[in-house]
Amino acid sequence: MSAKIEFRSDMTVKLGRSLAHDLDVTTTARVSTLGPEVDEQVASFEDNLKGNVGLINYLMRERHGSPFEHTRFTFYVEAPIFVTRQMLKHRAGTSINEESGRYREMLPSFYMPSLVRPLVQTGKVGAYQFEAGDEGQHLTVELMFERACHAAWSSYEAMLARGICKEVARMVLPVSTYSTLYLTCNARSLMHFLSLRTTNEGARFPSHPQYEIELVAQKMEAHFAELMPVTYEAFVKHGRVAP
């Protein structure tokens, strides 16, 4: 019996393990001037709050980036394949492990653009604008997605039932198929990702990411802001440029 197909428009981002604190930045930065004395002179972040905030802003402003690499975030992500491919493309200092359709049967879970997802593209290459579609366009998208995904899933199941290997059967599945992955990065690489994959008026270098990957980036950014508030504030203050 054919599995029930699920359509969804959300992106899942969960924070797994993390070793990320503003103190990690200031401690590793100060070893350059304190040497072995750093262990004796560095206490809690709050003990030297003004100095630590000033140091992080200095590092961010002057783009001394290596101290920000002594941190770690591991994210669990559920997103359609066309989003996970973009995550691979725009990585720097990032490790990714994704589920493999060669070794496991894929799940019948497909992305469907929500009613708030802009549908109409205007402008020229490099300066595209996207506008909301009308009711007829949204109905067309829904119908076409349902038709294509149902046909693809039926073909996938039929090949598996005939004993065709998973790595061949998966080739008929669309890029709207949901995949899962773990992504591990440091604060510097995360800021690089956020600078490219979010839209923000305060950014020194404006970016125009695809709607769906920005949903992922926004959730990552929320974890970053919570775990490293001083670093995050400096990142925003200095134009959202990775140091």
TrEMBL record:
Catalytic activity entry: dUMP + (6R)-5,10-methylene-5,6,7,8-tetrahydrofolate + NADPH + H(+) = dTMP + (6S)-5,6,7,8-tetrahydrofolate + NADP(+)
InterPro entries: Thymidylate_synthase_ThyX, Thymidylate_synthase_ThyX_sf
Cofactor note: Binds 4 FAD per tetramer. Each FAD binding site is formed by three monomers.
Residues binding dUMP, per UniProt: 98-102, 170, 197
This protein's record includes keyword Cell membrane: no
Organism superkingdom: Bacteria
Binding site for FAD: 66, 98, 186-188, 192
Transmembrane helix recorded as keyword: no
UniProt-listed Pfam families: Thy1
Signal peptide: none
EC number annotated for this UniProt entry: 2.1.1.148
Active site: 197 (involved in ionization of n3 of dump, leading to its activation)
Keywords associated with the record: FAD, Flavoprotein, Methyltransferase, NADP, Nucleotide biosynthesis, Transferase
Cofactor: FAD
Pathways per UniProt: Pyrimidine metabolism; dTTP biosynthesis
Protein's job: Catalyzes the reductive methylation of 2'-deoxyuridine-5'-monophosphate (dUMP) to 2'-deoxythymidine-5'-monophosphate (dTMP) while utilizing 5,10-methylenetetrahydrofolate (mTHF) as the methyl donor, and NADPH and FADH(2) as the reductant.
Assembly, per entry: Homotetramer.
Family label: Belongs to the thymidylate synthase ThyX family.
NCBIfam families according to UniProt: thyX (TIGR02170)
Protein name: Flavin-dependent thymidylate synthase
Organism the protein comes from: Actinocorallia libanotica
